[in-house]
């Protein structure tokens, strides 16, 4: 075998080896891309699950506090007298001006009807809200 023939074979073998390596590298890249895609999908699903858990918690709390808020709305309707939407706006105004959550304002008003003292900021803002209603 001549030196020229040996170098051609070596060169051909190297070229063949490179050709086989390219698909393997591409397959490895595709595998890592699939793994990266799966990781991204898992992260998105985990974020979505957390978002849904938070929403479920909020809905449960809303279901628990809704009856108390409706009772307080009825009390405002009897005091004012006014319709349900106006009573809701009164409760919202009292909540905002007192810087107290609406469900806590409603609880305090209902408890006040049962004999518990209503906190002064709620009393003051409720009186102001009721005075501001058109007669």
Automatic annotation (TrEMBL):
<feature type="compositionally biased region" description="Polar residues">
    <location>
        <begin position="1"/>
        <end position="10"/>
    </location>
</feature>
<feature type="domain" description="ANTAR">
    <location>
        <begin position="49"/>
        <end position="110"/>
    </location>
</feature>
<dbReference type="Pfam" id="PF03861">
    <property type="entry name" value="ANTAR"/>
</dbReference>
<feature type="compositionally biased region" description="Low complexity">
    <location>
        <begin position="25"/>
        <end position="38"/>
    </location>
</feature>
<feature type="region of interest" description="Disordered">
    <location>
        <begin position="1"/>
        <end position="39"/>
    </location>
</feature>
<protein>
    <submittedName>
        <fullName>ANTAR domain-containing protein</fullName>
    </submittedName>
</protein>
<dbReference type="InterPro" id="IPR005561">
    <property type="entry name" value="ANTAR"/>
</dbReference>
<dbReference type="InterPro" id="IPR011006">
    <property type="entry name" value="CheY-like_superfamily"/>
</dbReference>
<dbReference type="InterPro" id="IPR036388">
    <property type="entry name" value="WH-like_DNA-bd_sf"/>
</dbReference>
